[in-house]
Specification:
Layout (H helix, E strand, L loop, with lengths): L10 E8 L3 H13 L9 E4 L16 E2 L8 H11 L6 H9 L1 H11 L16 E2 L9 E2 L5 H15 L3 E4 L3 E8 L2 E8 L5 E11 L20 H9 L3 E2 L4 E8 L11 H5 L3 E3 L19 H15 L4 E4 L5 H7 L1 H9 L9 E10 L2 E3 L11 E3 L4 E2 L11 H17 L19 H11 L1 H9 L3 H19 L5 H15 L7 H9 L6 H22 L23 E2 L1 H6 L2
Parallel strand pairs: 1-2, 1-9, 2-6, 9-16, 15-17
Antiparallel strand pairs: 3-5, 4-5, 7-8, 8-9, 10-15, 10-18, 11-14, 12-13, 13-14
């Protein structure tokens, strides 16, 4: 499904960017502004699918971590990030990102992002808050809706830019490859028909994989589309097993997901059991400001021990005026659901929030597949290590996207090293599963055997399975059971005759959103499970009951389907 042999492209593009979040918009602007003005042959194209137009960035509440105040410094921010990453951070990536944080924020201020101003006597003109894992106040924000303010500003500039073409209502399906190099993107239109968009360089800014789980912090979380497409095309993925669960998502079984920002705890919010006990003192000396993995596991432990459906986050001591000033969006949203956070605690539970792993890239977004770049949450530079620190993600989107824009303006490199897969001693059934996954045509055929309703049900079942077996706490047995179930889902029915297969294809349903989401999820979910099963230690976000302690030496996990397929 990746080959373009004998196919005429629907359109030609120089740099094709996929994704409508902070990373994609930043790159589009950065690259377009570097192009010479006036008539020219180059153009930047932004593919902003309707279902991804807002991106996960829009739901970011807390803000952007950066070294801005005179009393802060790069070394402090670097040290906090390395501690949170639990030994797995790429220190070069950390220093690069933190070192470019001020200039990224100054760029946003110049664009007009409406950050919250500070009091007159503050050392920095904009208000800075503190979140879990940070030793200083360094989170610049726009009230409690930073993501929305950021995307509204970036989108306005992108839409008005003469050097940027925007495509919408097309869904990315697979990466087109020719002679070992990316040659564009296969997309699907609203009728389910495929077409090839030819491109010299393809940049994925498609977000993470929180949508693989039953509960996520954004209403339409990605199932890891970009990661799945990249590995089918031949790119390496890194550290997939490190999936962050945000400790505090609003508990409302009948409502849509809604994140309660880390900044609520940063401004003094207390985590309580329904009986009023402040339980973080029982788990970590950093209390509510411990890193997210610590807080999420503490909440899970309290819920299991005491049979709770949720715990409570109480910010009422901050006072009504301060709450309305700092958290207007949260206060308004909760009030609409019957909770007045000025006087009552917020019921919260952990939910899938951020993927620390992804497509292995350099600091400029270059992958080990020629012509393919990845930026933002879909990429893995090593910045976050085994656990992302609060508000470093939007910073990474900005810094990496701007670096990618510079790199795309330089002569293309042809000597990118290929990463070595770390998969070893595979169980026979897991090796067989990888063989099936490497044949993405087979996965697609399995998906297209299902009606739209059946595909939707299967996707729901997969999410429930992932939450149960690959959530905040894992076990070797549970991971194997999940892999066994997925292997059954992606297997072709035994004894299927060629005639029966042709008849089935003739009567197959038209591909829809649920088919496409399931196709991507069935590729990525088992790879995450395999990486988790092979990591015989607990580190950062990966906690496995069979190996509760970290190994003496931290190492990245690397997986690439094409490497496995070449060995079979």
């Amino acid at each position: 499904m990746n080959s373009v042999s004998g196919v005429t492209p629907a359109s030609q593009h120089d740099v094709l960017i996929v994704g409508g979040g902070a990373a994609g918009l930043t790159l589009a602007l950065s690259l377009a502004n570097r192009l010479p003005p006036g008539p020219r042959t180059r153009r930047v194209t932004l593919l902003r699918p309707a279902r991804e137009a807002q991106g996960a960035s829009r739901w970011a509440q807390g803000g952007i971590a950066a070294v801005l105040a005179p009393e802060d410094d790069v070394e402090s921010h670097v040290a906090d990030t390395l501690i949170a990453g639990d030994g797995l951070c790429n220190e070069r990536a950390v220093r690069f990102t933190v070192g470019h944080s001020r200039e990224a924020i100054e760029w946003l201020i110049a664009l007009g992002v409406p950050f919250t101003p500070a009091d007159a006597d503050a050392s920095y003109p904009f208000h800075l808050t503190r979140e879990g894992g940070h030793g200083r106040r360094r989170i610049i924000h726009a009230a409690d809706a930073t993501g929305r303010a950021l995307l509204d500003t970036l989108s306005a500039h992108v839409e008005a830019h003469p050097n940027i073409e925007i495509l919408e209502d097309l869904l990315a399906v697979d990466i087109a490859v020719n002679a070992g190099r990316v040659s564009g993107l296969w997309v699907m239109d609203g009728t389910g028909q495929r077409q090839w968009l030819a491109a010299n360089d393809l940049v994925l800014a498609t977000g993470g994989a929180s949508g693989l789980f039953a509960h996520a912090t954004s209403p339409s979380a990605s199932v890891g589309d970009g990661m799945a497409m990249a590995t089918r095309a031949g790119a390496s993925l890194m550290n997939l097993e490190f999936q962050q669960f945000h400790p505090t998502c609003l508990y409302d079984p009948d409502g849509t997901p809604f994140l309660i920002s880390e900044a609520v705890r940063g401004e003094g919010g207390l985590l309580l059991r329904p009986d009023g006990h402040r339980f973080m003192a029982d788990h970590d000396p950093r209390l509510e400001l411990a890193p997210r993995d610590v807080v999420a596991r503490a909440i899970l432990a309290e819920m299991r021990t005491h049979g709770l459906e949720h715990v409570c986050l109480d910010i009422s001591a901050l006072g009504a005026e301060a709450i309305e000033h700092h958290f207007p969006t949260i206060a308004e949203h909760c009030l609409a659901r019957g909770i007045d956070i000025r006087h009552a605690p917020i019921p919260v539970v952990p939910a899938a929030h951020y993927s620390c792993g992804g497509i292995a890239t350099g600091l400029d977004g270059a992958s080990d597949l020629p012509g393919l770049w990845a930026i933002g949450e879909v990429a893995c530079t090593g910045l976050h290590g085994a656990n992302r620190m609060a508000s470093n993600s939007l910073l990474e989107c900005l810094v990496q996207a701007r670096a990618c824009g510079e790199a795309l303006g330089q002569p293309r490199r042809t000597d990118e090293p290929r990463l070595m897969s770390t998969l070893d001693s595979l169980m026979p059934q897991h090796a067989a599963l990888l063989t099936q996954l490497a044949d993405n045509g087979q996965v697609w055929r399995c998906v297209m055997r299902l009606s739209a309703d059946e595909a939707r049900t299967r996707l729901h079942s997969l999410r429930q399975l992932m939450s149960l077996q690959a959530g905040i706490e894992r076990s070797q047995h549970g991971l194997r059971e999940a892999l066994k179930q997925i292997a059954q889902w992606v297997s072709l029915e035994a004894g299927q005759t060629a005639e029966a297969e042709q008849h089935r294809q003739a009567s197959a349903p038209r591909a829809g959103l649920d088919h496409l989401a399931l196709y991507q999820a069935l590729t990525l979910a088992p790879l995450l499970l395999l990486c988790a099963h092979q990591r015989h230690e607990s580190r950062g976000l990966h906690f496995i009951r069979d190996f509760p302690m970290p190994a003496p030496r931290a190492r990245d996990s690397v997986i690439r389907l094409s490497a496995f397929a070449a060995a079979t």
